[in-house]
Amino acid sequence: MKQGTREINMLEGSLVRGLFLFALPVALTVLLEQLINSADVFFLGHFVGTAEMAAVGNNVIILSLTVALFAGLSLGANVRIAYYLGARNRKGAVRTVHTSFLFALAIGFVITILGEIVATTALASLGVPEEVLPAAEAYLRIYLLAMAPLSIYNFGAAILRSNGDARTPLYILMAASLTNILLDFLSVTLLGLGIAGVAAATVLSYALAALLILRALRQAPGVLRLDGRQLVLRLDVLRPVLAIGIPAAIQGMVFCLANIVIQSAINSLGAEVMAASAAAFTIEVAIYSVVLGFQQATTTFVSQNYGARNLPRCREVVRTALTIVVLLMLALGGLIYLTKGLLLTFFTSDPAVLANGIIRLDYVVVPEVLCVFFDIFSGALRGYGESLRPALITLVAICGSRLTWIYTVFPVHHDFATIMLIYPLSWILTSFLIFALYRLYTRHLPAMMNDNAV
What gap in Å lies between CA 355 and CA 114, rounded to an integer? Predict the structure, then answer.
């Protein structure tokens, strides 16, 4: 199949079909990104020990923070390129592709250097127990070597998705995930490398993903093709990308930052709770990938149609996406509730770990449908180019409510269920505020349609 046939016409045709064709590969891509870390948890839990499994669990929040950073920044490139494609602005699209790629390479190396400097301090801030700390630090320091490849993959995927090609990034990550699983197995069973081996396997897997996405960009059709002769970092092109990407990154990272505080609270309950939370978290992120897939689809579809000045279709995109995801999440939540015990045995057979893992599934994963509303509406706002205010609302509503809860309610009711309860409560608050912003913003859109930039 030629790559050009993987593109989706976002400006015409059935929205239900188009959103599904775009969102499902993105959701599977997010799931596979999680699988890379889940494979580490699985092999360490079954072949090495609970302490090493807990060590990776402590790093999950930090690793999620870096993924959120690159995913958010790359979204700025996705929105700008999609807008230019909708507006038939070839020059703007070409310049954004090449500037974004160079920025991806630079920011990846910067994060690696900064991460190595603050690695010990970051883990100390989580309150990692002494018996887990050496393994956690070893894993993190090796994983940080994957930052440049991870950045290149995320930006490359965002560039391809801007024109509707969501399948190529999925196929690439499938290859990387399979490579990671194989290398994890070899490192812990045959080579006996333990936690250092699974971390190195992750780095090699992301390096493969970066090489494959680079190859895809070199072969991409039309304005998305990466040409070494046009690799110039244009600040005037980068600024609008970052104007959307930085707030989007902040919005994604806010969840991770708040969860760092929550992880510290979880750590205070002991290694069994830590391991249970790590196992349930992998299931949580897997289900949430559906929401993220349709959020990305909403953003890209809205951006292209906004560039084409088709405001009615923009609104229809939001309504259609919202309906689809609510129905899907209700079905998945029911499935998780019925099979929760069986799912957790995939990660561990420890009865105490299983019992605590079920608590996280009941309080967080089953009601994840509450995430749909603020994710879809904030995704639509970013498609229109409004990225800052959704990020600020998320900062206050998510981070503020969770921090307040951990420092006020948790000390009084010192148990795992109390920690988990703040997740659905913070989602409800954030959904209400984001929806209010969306209604206010869309009222003024007709007057903004004459603007030339997102």
Answer: 38
Instruction: Please state, in angstroms and rounded to a whole number, the distance separating the CA atoms of residues 21 and 376.
Output: 17
Q: What are phi and psi of 171, to 5 degrees?
A: -60, -40
Structure tokens at 349: 């057979």
Cβ neighbours of residue 421 closer than 8 Å, sequence gap 6 or more: 363, 405
Mean pLDDT, 10 residues at a time, the chain of 454 residues: 62 91 90 70 64 66 81 91 90 92 94 87 72 77 91 94 91 90 82 77 92 93 84 89 90 75 83 82 84 93 91 94 95 89 79 86 90 92 91 87 92 90 92 94 72 47
Instruction: List, as own/partner pairs, every contact residues 212-217 make where C-beta atoms lie below 8 angstroms and the sequence separation is at least 24, other chains included.
Output: 212/172, 212/175, 212/176, 213/152, 213/153, 213/156, 213/157, 213/160, 213/168, 213/169, 213/172, 214/152, 214/156, 216/3, 216/156, 216/160, 216/168, 216/172, 217/97, 217/101, 217/156, 217/159, 217/160
Q: 223 is written with which tokens?
A: 């304005």
Compute the distance between CA of residue 454 and CA of residue 441 in angstroms, rounded to an integer: 14
Q: The pTM is what?
A: 0.83
On the 0-12 / 13-18 / 19+ scale of CB atoms within 10 A, 118 is: exposed
Which residue do the tokens 């930006």 mark?
155
Residue 346 phi, psi (nearest 5): -65, -25
Residues 209 and 232: their CA atoms lie apart, in Å, by 23
Chain CA centroid to CA 130, Å: 30
- In sequence order, which residues have a C-beta less than 8 Å from that of residue 36 and are 6 or more positions away? 176, 177, 180, 202, 205, 206
